[in-house]
Amino acid sequence: MKIDSIRRQLKYKVLLRGDTGTGKTHCALMVASKCSERGDKVIYIDPEYGTQKEIIALYESGKISDESLANITMVITPRYDGKVEKVDDGMYRGGFRQAYKKVIKSDADLIVLDSVNEVMELHRRYLEGKFISQGYYVIGEKVFNITDSDTFTLPWQSYNKLYDDLLKVIYDMVDLGYNFICTSHPIGDTKTRERLESSVFRKFDTIIDMGVEISNNEKRWYGIIRKNRGKDVYARIKEVDKLLVKMFVGGDSGSE
After folding, report:
1. What are the residue ranges spanned by the domains of the chain?
2. CA 74 – CA 123 distance, rounded (Å)
3. Residue 187 C-alpha from the chain's centroid
4. How does pLDDT run across 153-183, given as a tens digit for each residue?
């Protein structure tokens, strides 16, 4: 066995966490485009139509090209359930559940899920619609009729299933033999969600809290590394997009 053999088998599992506008999609797209540029197969799952404008902005700025997009398959999943169909060159649209089943059977080199929170929201709306359509929901052995579909919201007792299903998706994607980038807004605002976030965190090698600074009218992404390869670390890095590209494909980093 040689060290090059180890390097070839090494896969990165990275979670980018932050509020809207902190560069999660930007960084994920930069890594995806650079991996695609060297010939890697990339599947990019976008549940919220959040990537198209970012891709065009990167293209117009010269940071990505047609060549660096050539090996990316974009799967847009605006709903939880539904057949996945091709809508354009390299672009598909359909239900997340069906897209996820195709992904875990694929031979991709890199998977990007952007973002996990939207998957949870799609699932929530799907369950609400299912319960409203049938006119009732079941908790334990009790059946509850839905008397007003306009004001019905998913009962809190159903959130455990919602979270368990989300964890299964994350665990499946992390455990398969490809590189994986997942983006997330902060999840933990209740004890149940804090436990969910903690369970998600355990599966990733690297967790970066994202942030953005404005310098000379330009955005500069930075990150706080909260975890790296199983160890809790707290290090600030500038130009986190460059660091991530170096991690996945090599190149110069922007670490401080």
Report:
1. 9-219+228-249
2. 20
3. 13
4. 988 888 888 888 888 888 888 888 889 999 9
* Fold assignment, 9-219+228-249: Rossmann fold (3.40.50)
For residues 128 and 4, the model is more confident at 128
pTM: 0.89
Q: How far apart are CA 86 and CA 167, in angstroms?
A: 28
- Convert the pLDDT of each residue in 4-29 to its tens digit: 566 666 788 999 999 988 999 999 99
Contact of 27 with 54, CB cutoff 8 Å: no
Residue 149: how many other CB atoms lie within 10 Å: 12
> How far is the C-alpha of 185 from the C-alpha of 29, rounded, in Å?
17
What is d(CA 225, CA 230) in angstroms, rounded to the nearest whole number? 12
**Which DSSP string corresponds to 142-209?**
EEEE-S-TTT----GGGHHHHHHHHHHHHHHHHHSSSEEEEEE----SSHHHHHHHHHHHTT-SEEEE
What are the backbone dihedrals phi and psi of residue 141, each rounded to the nearest 5 degrees, phi first?
Answer: -105, 5
